[in-house]
Amino acid sequence: MRKRLISYILCSLLLINTTVFADSGTFFRGHAEYDNKFNRPEEELFTGKTETLEKRDVINMTVSQVIDGSFSIEGDEFFAEVTSDVIGDKGVIIPKGSKAHGTIVQTSEAKRLGRNGYADLSFDSIITPDGREIPIEGKMSTRLHPIKEASKIVAQDLGYTALGGLAGGVFAAQALGIEAAIASHGYTLAGGAAIGGTIGLGMALYRKGKDVLIAPGDEIKVKIMSNIELPVYREEALKQEELTYPGLDIRIANIIYEKDPFGEVNTITLSLAISNMSKKTISGMDLTLVNDYNAVFNPSIFGDTKLMFSQLKPGDRYAGRISFAVNNVKHSYWLTVNDRATKKPLAKISLDNAYKHVSKDVKKKNDKVGRGKTNYYKEDDPFDI
Description:
Elements: H1 2-16, E1 20-23, E2 26-29, H2 42-45, E3 46-53, E4 58-63, E5 67-68, E6 77-82, E7 86-87, E8 92-94, E9 99-108, E10 118-127, E11 133-141, H3 146-183, H4 187-206, E12 213-214, E13 219-224, E14 228-233, E15 248-259, E16 265-276, E17 282-283, E18 287-291, E19 296-297, E20 311-312, E21 317-325, E22 333-338, E23 345-350, H5 351-355, H6 360-371
Antiparallel strand pairs: 1-2, 3-14, 4-6, 4-13, 5-12, 6-9, 7-8, 9-10, 10-11, 11-13, 15-16, 16-21, 17-20, 18-19, 18-22, 22-23
Helix pairs in contact: 3-4
């Protein structure tokens, strides 16, 4: 109930800030922008090679607004963001940060008999950071395959009935005694089990399934339903812009996604090597993370706080870790060093650029942790028939 109330509030806030624009008679809610750094000739962006995004390929995304199976309306439009580069044999074909336009096809709230709510989503285009609009046919659903869902419900109902029968038998043995059970040739235990089983079956029939709630930060997997030929990006074209300051050298050696003490995957821990040969003194409190929506995040007190309370004077060097609590570990971030007097950034280092040099083992662990705990229930793909 609390999650649903939160989703209602978030949706209301999103509706207040909605931008509507028309394109050939079609109305969209919200908007997608492209990065000016991609406003270059095609020969500077692409290698000249092409790669096929094949049918049944999967793209990882996160939605930009709450989708609630009991609140969202069929036909509602939304945007999702690609959370990791789509890479083929020849290179990247869809960059991280691309925006996908989607539509809610069908929703259902949770029902009795243990039937979960669900949401079916479709996607018709992806807008890349360089402003290209790629027509696609993609689908995503939180529904189980009907046969597997029915099997799961039956198994759960049998579990309720069996537990009820066991509880009823134990109650009969305690209330009437083992002697009565022996004298009645076990009929008292059987009667108790039957009554308990009936109560358990009633609970199974009455119980309600789980509502679907997809929130920003939840990762969804969108399956492509048709082949698409796409150009391959040059690696240099995908590098994020950075800001340097004379004499200040900051290198990001490692990037780790972690859970906070409450179990939420919202912490990014950086291993840094800092050489301050500038004329300024900096401290860990001058460091922030800024994401691609210009949201600012300060160091977390739940991580390594040594750097946070350290002063790096001209000529000092430092190697250590610092953590930041963020709202979504899959966004693009820049480690920013701010001038204490003007509050303006002296240096900005891209985490996306640094992440390309992180070891495969760390990336696998980050992917596992980054999936986190979603608010929707997805165990199989109903489109796999």
